[in-house]
Design goal:
It contains 3 helices and no strands. With 77 residues, it is mainly alpha-helical. Helix 2 runs antiparallel to helix 3.
């Protein structure tokens, strides 16, 4: 957040909100990857489950990147 944003009164900066959501989604993606890797479960079903969790984590990361781009575009306006 820029110093001008911190001093401004009124509604929150939309770019700051997008960056916050982006950071939260990145954190969720990291936790999902870590949880899937930590499973002791073995076998074809475990592999399929890990693949589904990895795909979900990748979608979270993709969405987070999109929010970060949108925040940057708002900053440029």
């Amino acid at each position: 957040m820029s110093p001008a944003t911190r001093l401004r009164h009124g509604p929150p900066d939309p770019a700051d909100g997008l960056r916050g959501h982006s950071a939260a989604l990145h954190a969720h993606a990291q936790r999902l990857h870590a949880a899937a890797e930590a499973l002791d479960w073995r076998g074809p079903q475990a592999d399929a489950f890990r693949a589904e969790v990895a795909a979900l984590a990748d979608r979270c990361a993709t969405a987070a990147n999109g929010l970060a781009v949108a925040a940057a575009q708002l900053e440029d306006e």
